[in-house]
Predict the 3D structure of the following.
Amino acid sequence: MSSLEAFREHIRRLVSEGRSDQALTECDGRIAADPQEPMLYRARAYARAQARLLREAIDDLSIVVDLDPGEPRDYFTRGRYRLMLGDNSGAVADLTKTLDLSRELASEYYVDEAYLFRAEAHLRLRDYDRALDDVRSARSASDDDVIWTDTRTSKREIREAALRGKNQR
């Protein structure tokens, strides 16, 4: 395990033990010593998110995507945090970038979840047709697969809400 991976695991352990303040202090120190290392900002974004400092976590992830723009997970995570804060347009942009990068990398890891989170963002923007398109695109997700934003929802619930919204127009 590299020293960066060990540091990331150390931060996760501190957070799981309820010592987020210490985790953040250690992240700040490491970032001051190596401000060009994306993994350090990812670790701090994680600690900040767990401490419910989502705006600050988004700021860290914005630095990460500037330093390392080719990693889908950073856009995916930032998109989820934006959705949780009600920045639905920002969430759509980040989740779209997740899907684009996943296609470029031939990686399916984030695809279904990105479609479902983006469908939820479209739903909140009252863009029911796009929400339905994204639900349909999440092919390997079952109807009962659950995603967590600021609320718990499933593929079925998103689809039903989008259909209700579309029919009320």
About this structure: The chain has two domains: 1-69, 88-169. The two ends are 55 Å apart (CA to CA). The chain has nine helices and two strands. Strands lie at 146-148, 152-154.
